[in-house]
UniProtKB/TrEMBL annotation:
SMART domains: OMPdecase (SM00934). This is Orotidine 5'-phosphate decarboxylase. Residues 18-282 form the Orotidine 5'-phosphate decarboxylase domain. Pathway: Pyrimidine metabolism; UMP biosynthesis via de novo pathway; UMP from orotate: step 2/2. It holds the Pfam family OMPdecase. It is an enzyme of class 4 (lyase). CDD domains: OMP_decarboxylase_like (cd04725). It comes from Modestobacter italicus (strain DSM 44449 / CECT 9708 / BC 501).
Amino acid sequence: MSAPFGERLAGAVAARGPLCVGIDPHVPLLADWGLPDTPEGLARFTDAVVDALAGHVAVLKPQLAFYERHGSRGLAVLEEAVVRARAAGALVLLDAKRGDIGSTMDAYADYLRPEHPLAVDALTVSPYLGPGSLQPAVDTARLTGGGLFVLARTSNPDAGTFQHARVGERTVAQAVVDTVRGWNTPAWVVGDPLPDIGAVRDVAGRWGPGTGSFGVVVGATLAELDVDLDGLGGPVLAPGLGAQGGSVADLRRLFGAGRAVVPTVSRDVLRAGPDPTALRAAADRWTAELAG
């Protein structure tokens, strides 16, 4: 078992800043780089991003779908890239958004096992089948030192259709946040009463040795923060910076100062390629703005 993901993430953020860069090799972006929509083009794109950024940013977040669409050759590209990225010091968050039950969820969680050919540091997961459905992934993460980011309050236009639905006195989104807060509290398991927020207030929203390994996904482009993140104990993955309209000012408006937030940017950095110096400079601009 490696050190828990939350601790490794806090260390990476302290050394490199909180920026997470998504690796999203979609067809128009490959074309913008002058690359074909083939496994060879995919490999050239991915190698360039990893070479430019893996020794530079805290987190790289490859989107699994863009590799799966090329079949086994695409997955082979991703396998090699993940190994190289982690060797260069970046944490790798696999954006897979997996969610299922029983042995199927257990198999998805194998991405967190060090012996897996595509072993990563953390995984995005979907809670739609209920909190208990994610327990195999939680167990694997605890065993291996991996991390999970659970979809909670996304900012796509119709997200509220489900996320604002109510479960008793809470919205579905709040129920997700509360469940993840429980996972960051020692000895809490699904089915137990939720812990008192005050009991975990000391690790709520701050980077440090106590940062939990279980986080939530909350969009950086929300009009307002309509979930209570107090006492979460783990990080918030905040996608949407740059091309999707989110800004550093939005991060501060939504999350305040000091909270353990991992801001994610993709196109606003990737479109600077394929020149590695330009890619690194684009990431540096975001890192400097986040530190300002």
